[in-house]
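Re: beginner question about structure tokens

> Can someone show what the tokenized structure looks like for a real chain? I only ever see the sequence side.

Sure, here's an example I had lying around. Input first:
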Amino acid sequence: MGRLTWLLAGLAACAPSAPDIDHDGFAADQDCDDANALVYPGAPDTPGDGVDGDCDGQDAQHDFVGEWELVFLSAMFSSFQLVDSGSESGVLTLTEDLDAELDVSLGIDPAVVGYELDIALVMDGWVSPLDGEGRSWMRVEGEAVGETSFVELECTSSEDALDCEGVLLALGVNLDTVARFERR
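And the corresponding structure tokens:
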């Protein structure tokens, strides 16, 4: 009978302190959602899905979420650069709810249009993550000089920069656009 007692004591010592209901290798007292085998400490955590997949207390955030300062904007029609270099400034705000707001000011090169023209755009829209690390697509629209304008950009984010290219429709003209933003 001594061996059976020893065996039972050894098995009891190896048993987890709480059951592992979802069989993901983490006992209920370690797992923040023991009813879901895809949720456990250290699990992959998909940004923006509303689930704390890795049990760190919050859902992972997309790389592009935050406030970004415009540091460069190029808008070209054919081979004509329309933005007066150095005149661009603004802020891009991208939220966890995938809302986008772009507040930008820029000057049109007087050599192209024949006179100085400054444009201020306040645009609202949305951002959507794309497949691949740090990639997103956004569309914002607003009104400038009495006409509807929009920007559609595909962006790649790193920790401190957001590099984008796409189309800006302003004053009824589609402009090939490249922009760089830095995290504020």
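Each token stands for a local structural state, so reading them left to right follows the chain. The mean pLDDT is 87.
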